[in-house]
Amino acid sequence: MSDKIYGLMAEFNTPGDVLRAAKKVRAAGYHRWDVFSPFPIHGIDKVMGLKNSMVGWVSLAMGGGAFVSGFVLLWFSNAFDYPLIVGGKPMFSVPMTFVPSYILMVMGGAIGALVGMLALNQFPRLHHPLLHKARFELVSRDKFVIVIGSTDPGFSLTETRQLLESAGGLNVDIVEDKD
Amino acid sequence: MTNDSNQPAPLNLSRWQAAPGLLMVVGTVLSAFGLFASPQEFGFSWLFAFIFYYTIALGALFMVLVHHLTDAGWSVGIRRFSEHLASLLGWPLVAMFLPVAALAPKIYSWMSVPAKEHLIAAKAPVFTTPGFYITSAVFLAILWFLTSRLAGLSLAQDKTGEAKFTHKMRFHAGWGIVAFALVLTFSGALWVKALQYQWYSAMYGVYFFGSSVWIGLATIYVLTVLLQRQGYLKGLVKENYYYYIGVLLMGFTVFQAYIEFAQYFVVWNANMPVETFWYLIRENGNWWTVSIILIFGHFLLPFFLLLPQKIKSNVRVVVPICLWMWVMHALDLAYNIFPALHPQGYPLKWIWLPLAALAFQGGFLGRIFVKKLHAHPPYPAKDPRLLEAMGVNPHLANELAGADVGGAR
């Protein structure tokens, strides 16, 4: 076992238990922690105090950027760099430019949402310290797990363990940070 | 959200009771004056106001139909007053259509061109004077029957709570959505698009649909807020309602603009005189200003304001946007209707006449709506989906989060 510690994990048997424990963890002032569950628990984001994801902003920036670049590209290529009459239409006009730019915007927004989601999740990632824990596999079966990261300023092996145990956590265990 | 003690006192609107009557009086006086001054100007203004309220009622009817067709749960809370709005499509809007019917020969220029002109002959038998009246009567009769069935069955369920009424309403929504689509498309063509009968646009029905649902949703949003604040929907309508309606409103803002742009784009791209003339006269005089205001005010402003997720349930922002949408919708209808009469720009000296027609019809329909609202329970009291809509069996998560963040979301 290496010295480096990723965090502490605790198991819970029911969604109710994990929700009550999550409330206590949040009240204790932790920031770098997460709840794992076999299925979505409605309203857990509110209990954990999670903020809205930033993905929307990435999507907006990428979509807006794609729209503007579409406009500029059509103006540059069709009206500025190599003026070409197509179908008797003006070299540059908004109705003509709008449709391709709009479609680029949809594509940019979609790619922004995907890339933003991957980046914020720190993907692609082939490995995670939690995957070393045999009992962690139970979160895809019938257990609920809270993990508190050691990078949290309030993290302490003794106090955090006490908190998790007092919140009803079973099998509280150290998660080692090894590759 | 869970804590009612810090809610503000119920909104009291009793001092507004006289407003509909006042609007009717002012509207009647000015409209009568307008009718004598210029029957044609009056006819166009009355048609404009009629279409304004007609589209709101159609939008509400769409929400009721979709509620039944999708077997929705959450929208039970807003269904009753949507039914009242939709059932304005019964005798009240028929009554409001009568002046249009009476003045039709002055409003619709195709009635006075020779019937053998190809553009008219090709559209016979609808584009004949009897054809116009018969078709209009059929449209209004279908809507009257459909809305009265939906509202009547819903009220019948209030007494017994039997599930068979839900099934019956679903049956009527089934044929109703088809009838709705056909009547909406053809009435938009017959009553509005035909003002310039020489024009072609396959997009017009979709445009009319998008506009109707858009303004219907804006109206429903405002009414939901008003009724909730007055305490009629207490315990039923929560923030998630505002969010859901707000999302739909945002969606239809985009959809309506997309369709209106697509119509313009197709005409612009094909560049055929039989189509472009419609847009060319809308670049004359102050119609140009109106078109620019519509691009920014009808689409871009509401779109960007409604874009952030949390805004949609912030009634302090969305209600003013909805009121703004009414102005924009009226302007959009004016842009569709009045250039047929004033192709060189709208003479502002007549502006009081459409406003008077809006005032009278608004007062008249508003009175009937409020009367219906007071006569019946404010929501379907025995709907099988009511508990689902109220969110009974609250999740433990909501309870914990509610206590945690002190009632605010």
Summarize the structure.
The complex is a heterodimer of chains A (179) and B (409). Chain A has 179 residues and is an alpha+beta fold.
User: Number of helix segments of chain B?
Assistant: 15
List the helices and strands of chain B in order.
Answer: HHHHHHHHHHHHHHH
Largest interface: A-B, 22 and 19 residues
- Principal-axes geometry of chain B comes out as globular
Range of strand content of chain A: 5-15%
Helix content bin of chain B: over 70%
Widest β-sheet, arrangement of strands of chain A: 2-3-1-4
Give the oligomeric state of the chains in this entry, treating copies of one chain as homo and distinct chains as hetero.
Answer: heterodimer
Largest sheet of chain A: 4 strands, antiparallel
**Could you give the distance between the termini of chain A?**
11 Å
The chain-level mean pLDDT of chain A equals 88
How many domains in all of chain B?
1
**Strand count, sense and closure of the main sheet of chain B?**
none
How many β-strand stretches of chain A? 4
Morphology call of chain A: elongated
Q: Sketch the topology of chain A as an H/E string, one letter per element.
A: EHEHHHEHE
- Uncertain parts of chain B: 1-5, 403-409
Counted beta strands of chain B:
0
Keywords, separated by commas or semicolons:
heterodimer, A: 179 residues, alpha+beta, 46% helix, B: 409 residues, mainly alpha, globular, disordered N terminus
Describe this structure in words.
The complex is a heterodimer of chains A (179) and B (409). Chain A is an alpha+beta fold and 179 residues long. Chain A has a domain at 55-120. In chain A, 46% of the residues lie in helices and 14% in strands. Chain A is built from 5 helices and 4 strands, in the order βαβαααβαβ. In chain A, strands 2-3-1-4 form a 4-stranded antiparallel β-sheet. Chain A is elongated. The termini of chain A are close together. Chain B is mainly α and 409 residues long. The termini of chain B are close together. Chain A binds chain B through residues 15-16, 19-20, 23, 26-27, 41-44, 46-47, 49, 52, 56, 60, 88, 95-96, 98-99, and chain B through 261, 264-265, 268-269, 271, 307-310, 395-398, 400-401, 404-405, 409.
